[in-house]
Specification:
Blueprint lengths: L38 H15 L3 H13 L28 H14 L6 H15 L33 H10 L4 H8 L6 E3 L7 E3 L5 E3 L6 H10 L9 E3 L11 H7 L6 H8 L1 H12 L1 H15 L22
Antiparallel strand pairs: 1-4, 2-3
Helix pairs in contact: 1-3, 1-4, 2-4, 3-4, 6-11, 8-10, 10-11
Length: 325
């Protein structure tokens, strides 16, 4: 499925058909004020160092966060390694950023051993990566605990394909307490990162000579030809293209301008422009980066508060890649 292979969010992507999200009333931006007051500085410093070495880390961390929150909630269950875990499912095999989260967690534990969850480290790391790339720095509530369950069988039924209609995506978002406005704002994550060719292959077909030709009128012709050059019929499965062809390394509002010029990479991107319920907001975000950033901040907080574990639920993992004990 398309969303399985994108390296950034495609949010397009995103939510699951399961129980309604839990109350996040126990979360607070000041949760670690006494127990680990430097946690945000430590994670930010670690992520900045990692992103200097790997500029693609922003998209990787965003996608990693999204794939975590959509299955068992934002509980770091996607970080657990091993056969039969979420991480082992084909939907998640192309995920990246694990090493950056592990490094940040180890640094935090040097100063505050056993205090900060991997789930909170992941949320902070994704938040900070966006800010490092020029996006807003969101104040996020903290206090999540790590889940003890990570099953590959929970992944496939809960993925949203980029060929879904707006109604299908809106229904899934609504089931998680998210609105169409959240859908549009979070889709703005496609302003950064990259995707495998298979993520948008349904927009092309092979002709009699074995060459790809566009079959989707919602994509601009020259942009379509650029994609074909980068992703020919015989392209390696590992080949990727940038989600945003204009400012691929900046977290900005260019994604929405791209949509207006028919340069959205995924079908689910193009749908946002074609539907009257969403086009107005796409246009507004393209005209005002401040408006997009303000909506992003609100939607990001709602995303990271879905199905959280807090209080006595779950655990604080010693190592993010395996449950305790």
């Amino acid at each position: 499925m398309d969303s399985f292979y994108t390296l950034a969010l495609p949010f397009l992507f995103l939510f699951i058909l399961c129980s309604p999200y839990l109350s996040s009333s126990q979360l607070s931006p000041s949760f670690y004020a006494l127990s680990c007051p430097n946690v945000e500085f430590l994670v930010r410093d670690s992520v900045r160092s990692a992103s200097d070495a790997d500029p693609s880390l922003v998209g990787k961390l965003l996608r990693l966060l999204f794939h975590d929150c959509i299955v068992e909630g934002c509980d770091a269950s996607v970080l657990v390694a091993g056969n039969g875990t979420e991480r082992s499912d084909p939907a998640n095999l192309s995920l990246g950023g694990f090493e950056a989260v592990d490094a940040a967690k180890k640094l935090v534990d040097l100063f505050c051993p056993g205090i900060v969850s991997c789930a909170d480290v992941l949320v902070l790391a994704a938040r900070d990566a966006v800010a490092i790339a020029g996006g807003p720095s969101v104040e996020v509530p903290l206090g999540r605990r790590d889940g003890r369950v990570s099953l590959a069988s929970n992944v496939r039924p809960n993925m949203v394909d980029t060929s879904f209609s707006l109604d299908e995506m809106a229904h899934l978002f609504s089931a998680k307490g998210l609105s169409i406005e959240d859908l549009i704002a979070l889709s703005g994550a496609h302003t950064i990162g990259s995707a495998h060719c298979s993520a948008f292959s349904e927009r092309f077909k092979e002709d009699a000579n074995g060459n790809l030709v566009p079959i989707d009128g919602s994509i601009e012709e020259n942009y379509a030809m650029e994609l074909i050059k980068k992703c020919p019929a015989n392209a390696s499965p590992a080949t990727t293209v940038e989600d945003d062809p204009v400012t691929p390394n900046a977290f900005d509002n260019q994604y929405f301008t791209n949509l207006l010029t028919k340069k959205g990479l995924f079908l689910s991107d193009a749908i946002l422009l074609q539907d009257s319920r969403t086009r107005e907001m796409v246009e507004a975000f393209s005209q005002s980066q401040d408006k997009f950033f303000a909506s992003w901040e609100e939607s990001f907080v709602r995303l990271t508060s879905i199905v959280v574990k807090s209080g006595s639920e779950g655990e604080i993992r010693s190592t993010c890649s395996r449950v305790n004990g």
